[in-house]
Amino acid sequence: MNRLRKRLFLPICCIFLLMAVFAIGGIWRCSSEAVTTIAKIENDDQNYSVVFQEIGTAFTFGPSHVRVILEDGSGNEVSSLEDDICNDGCRLNKENIQVDWQSDYVEITLFGKEQKSRSHQLHFA
Question: How many Å apart are CA 67 and CA 117, to the nearest integer?
């Protein structure tokens, strides 16, 4: 009986280890592809809006990957950018973005707890 236990121990441990690896990999893959809209900032004067999205989730205090989309009044994408925000693993919110509307472009400033602010320009069509 003892010999049978020794022969089955290693294969059973390998099966459980593989199940754990597949489960963790599946959870990580789903969370890295999830897109969450954080904010939508509209400019009624020029009929444009900026959509601020987080792609995936910050994993173990890593940076958050974000997408910022400039849309026209019909909801069509005019321009976009992707960047990372170092926010100490915290969830992103409206405080991580500032939008300044100009006559022919919008200036996007991204903020994080562990980084200097970074500015980008998205031009109107």
Answer: 16
